[in-house]
Every structure is written in C-alpha cells, then in structure tokens.
Design brief:
single chain; 81 residues; mainly alpha
Length: 81
C-alpha cells in the first residue's frame, strides 16, 4: 500500500452507507491497487479531503456517499470559484 493512504487504512466493508472517510480510503486503495502514480494518489487525497472538509463544515447532513447530492458538488465548485 502506498504511503499516501497508509493513514486511512480500514477493514470495514465498503457500502453506500459507509462514512465518507471510509469511502475515501477505499477509493485511494483502489487507485493504489490500479498502480496509479503516488503523485496522483496524493493529489486525489488532497482534493477529495478538501471536499470532505467542505461537506463537514457546510453540508451537515452529508455523512455517507449516498448523502452527497449533485447540488452539494455544485455548491462546492461555486465555493472554489
């Protein structure tokens, strides 16, 4: 496993009701398993980590991937602009 996601290791099975952080860790492990560049994994970890921080601060109801809506993503993109 790459250094980019060692801190995010989890043994819980991934479901749509998994916490966002668990889903992120699983996604990063998938990138590592697909032999993506460590720089790519770090960049995705940073970008998605910032998105999760935005959700925690502003979209208090988004706790799992199934809670995240298109409107949440649109609002985040507007926030970045």
């Amino acid at each position: 496993m790459s250094q980019a996601n060692n801190a995010m290791t989890t043994t819980a099975p991934l479901t749509r009701d998994a916490p966002l952080e668990t889903a992120l860790a699983a996604y990063l492990r998938g990138l590592d398993g697909a032999n993506k560049s460590p720089a790519t994994i770090r960049a995705y970890q940073t970008d998605l980590g910032q998105f999760l921080a935005f959700l925690r601060e502003t979209i208090l109801t988004a706790r799992t991937p199934s809670d995240v809506t298109r409107a949440d993503v649109t609002e985040y993109l507007s926030h970045l602009a």
